[in-house]
Amino acid sequence: MIEMHDIWKTYADGTHALRGVSVRIDRNEFVYLVGPSGAGKSTFMKLIYREEVPTKGQISVNDFNIGKLKSRKIPYVRRNIGVIFQDFRLLPKLTIYENVAFAMEVIEAPRRIIKKRTMEVLDLVGLKHKHASYPSQLSGGEQQRVSIARAIVNNPSVIVADEPTGNLDPETSAGIMNLLEEINFRGSTIVMATHNKDIVNTMRKRVIAIENGLIVRDEARGEYGYEV
Amino acid sequence: MKFSTLLRHIREGLKNIVRNGWMSFASMSSIFISLFILGVFVLLVMNVNLMADQIESKVQIRVFLNTDVDDAKVAELQNKIGNMPEVSKVTFVSKEEGLQILREAMGEQNGDWLEGYSDENNPLMVSYTVEVYDPQTVQIVADAIQAINSMDSDEPIYRVKYGQGTIETLFKITNALRYIGLIIVVGLGVTAMLLISNTIKMTIVARRREIGIMKLVGATNAFIRWPFFVEGALIGLVSSVITSGIMIFGYSQLVNLTQTELSLMLITLVPIKTAALNVSVLIIGIGTLIGILGSTISIRKYLKV
């Protein structure tokens, strides 16, 4: 569960990224974050995985008040949040298996369990047969599947995806969306920022629109609402 | 920390060296070159110091007695000088021994100058050779011996000789050499540290993305730091072991090749064992320390959220 109460975020250069945002996202929800570029979507997401702290206001994730978290405790909160990026952010010198297993090594899971679980999620994203390949040997869609596998390997309760289909063609994007829906179905809350009108209009999930740092629309089964 | 995690960090550190092959090579080369230059200077300074010590230890005081001094007086004076706290050894040199020493010193070619002199008509005076613990006290001891003479009514001592003037200059030179050597070694040490930590910093800057991803998946700072620590320590250790190996080999070759020539010039080099021990302890110590410090200090910047 994510709760924001009157969140303001002003960057050092004076930009007001968010100007009083209050929202509540329940467990197991699937939420699209839409809005023009620079509206504050990325800041909204960065606040959730504690890459940024709010200038003002309260934010809690899984009942942790993460605005006031001691830096020593940040890693432990992040282990409960999976993050997916537009540019995948895989480590180029590690194999697919190592990239995913890495997220489990961090939480000091036993090797036997790491091996079992990593192969399990690679199977889920359909890349078990490519576990020994390196990211550069994979297509964009496949790399995004690896980064999704990494995000879900520790069973996080929240998945934050910043334009996960931004670099992919429509067909590959559909595959990625099916995967995210499957993960949502298995119990994770998903917050996904996107510019993809088709995806939002087909899936008909909750849509939150942000403009100029404010929530201007919040519909339970919404549409994209912007002309592309 | 779990033992399996520690093993993981060591494994990861090793893998990182291989994965970042070129960067590891660059760090190793820079550590190698810096430490090699440092090592060459340390060896040089060690040898200069040894030579200075040897030259200084050859400094002696010669005390010549008047020809009419009897044996009892000779023994009394030897006791008095020998009892001085600075003096390590007093050797009595009889007329006969004096002539022998002189003959040897003049060598075969000029030996005929002394022909005709024998034990019967020996023109030399009896003397003592006085050695001191600390060469720097030669002048004080010489003055003290001179003082014994002034207090004695017979004034049995003819002359006290210790190379007045030249000794002082010699000490000035040897001391200066020691200080210059020390300054150069310290300077090179600092330069080596800066050079190496800079190279390591570069390797870490190249990997800040990697560190960012580690943080994103919830790695603690300690978890991120460990493999870098292992990596830095290993790079430092391996390159300094190579450096000292090559240095010791080179030095032993040098000592063996020049042994005959230098011994003719009465110069001895620092023995290989002593040099090897000192240089390798210094180089391996500095190398490993630099590897560890370089990697852990440079990484701090990227660990902040």
TrEMBL record, chain A:
<keyword id="KW-0131">Cell cycle</keyword>
<dbReference type="InterPro" id="IPR003593">
    <property type="entry name" value="AAA+_ATPase"/>
</dbReference>
<keyword id="KW-0813">Transport</keyword>
<keyword id="KW-0547">Nucleotide-binding</keyword>
<comment type="subunit">
    <text>Homodimer. Forms a membrane-associated complex with FtsX.</text>
</comment>
<feature type="domain" description="ABC transporter">
    <location>
        <begin position="2"/>
        <end position="228"/>
    </location>
</feature>
<dbReference type="InterPro" id="IPR015854">
    <property type="entry name" value="ABC_transpr_LolD-like"/>
</dbReference>
<dbReference type="InterPro" id="IPR027417">
    <property type="entry name" value="P-loop_NTPase"/>
</dbReference>
<keyword id="KW-0067">ATP-binding</keyword>
<dbReference type="InterPro" id="IPR017871">
    <property type="entry name" value="ABC_transporter-like_CS"/>
</dbReference>
<dbReference type="GO" id="GO:0016887">
    <property type="term" value="F:ATP hydrolysis activity"/>
</dbReference>
<protein>
    <recommendedName>
        <fullName>Cell division ATP-binding protein FtsE</fullName>
    </recommendedName>
</protein>
<keyword id="KW-1003">Cell membrane</keyword>
<dbReference type="GO" id="GO:0051301">
    <property type="term" value="P:cell division"/>
</dbReference>
<dbReference type="Pfam" id="PF00005">
    <property type="entry name" value="ABC_tran"/>
</dbReference>
<dbReference type="GO" id="GO:0005886">
    <property type="term" value="C:plasma membrane"/>
</dbReference>
<comment type="similarity">
    <text>Belongs to the ABC transporter superfamily.</text>
</comment>
<keyword id="KW-0132">Cell division</keyword>
<dbReference type="InterPro" id="IPR005286">
    <property type="entry name" value="Cell_div_FtsE"/>
</dbReference>
<dbReference type="GO" id="GO:0005524">
    <property type="term" value="F:ATP binding"/>
</dbReference>
<comment type="function">
    <text>Part of the ABC transporter FtsEX involved in cellular division.</text>
</comment>
<dbReference type="InterPro" id="IPR003439">
    <property type="entry name" value="ABC_transporter-like_ATP-bd"/>
</dbReference>
UniProtKB/TrEMBL annotation, chain B:
<feature type="domain" description="ABC3 transporter permease C-terminal">
    <location>
        <begin position="183"/>
        <end position="304"/>
    </location>
</feature>
<keyword id="KW-0132">Cell division</keyword>
<feature type="domain" description="FtsX extracellular">
    <location>
        <begin position="59"/>
        <end position="151"/>
    </location>
</feature>
<keyword id="KW-0812">Transmembrane</keyword>
<keyword id="KW-1133">Transmembrane helix</keyword>
<dbReference type="Pfam" id="PF18075">
    <property type="entry name" value="FtsX_ECD"/>
</dbReference>
<dbReference type="InterPro" id="IPR003838">
    <property type="entry name" value="ABC3_permease_C"/>
</dbReference>
<keyword id="KW-0131">Cell cycle</keyword>
<feature type="transmembrane region" description="Helical">
    <location>
        <begin position="233"/>
        <end position="255"/>
    </location>
</feature>
<dbReference type="InterPro" id="IPR058204">
    <property type="entry name" value="FtsX_firmicutes-type"/>
</dbReference>
<dbReference type="InterPro" id="IPR004513">
    <property type="entry name" value="FtsX"/>
</dbReference>
<dbReference type="GO" id="GO:0005886">
    <property type="term" value="C:plasma membrane"/>
</dbReference>
<feature type="transmembrane region" description="Helical">
    <location>
        <begin position="21"/>
        <end position="46"/>
    </location>
</feature>
<protein>
    <recommendedName>
        <fullName>Cell division protein FtsX</fullName>
    </recommendedName>
</protein>
<dbReference type="GO" id="GO:0051301">
    <property type="term" value="P:cell division"/>
</dbReference>
<dbReference type="InterPro" id="IPR040690">
    <property type="entry name" value="FtsX_ECD"/>
</dbReference>
<feature type="transmembrane region" description="Helical">
    <location>
        <begin position="179"/>
        <end position="200"/>
    </location>
</feature>
<keyword id="KW-1003">Cell membrane</keyword>
<comment type="function">
    <text>Part of the ABC transporter FtsEX involved in asymmetric cellular division facilitating the initiation of sporulation.</text>
</comment>
<comment type="similarity">
    <text>Belongs to the ABC-4 integral membrane protein family. FtsX subfamily.</text>
</comment>
<dbReference type="Pfam" id="PF02687">
    <property type="entry name" value="FtsX"/>
</dbReference>
<feature type="transmembrane region" description="Helical">
    <location>
        <begin position="275"/>
        <end position="299"/>
    </location>
</feature>
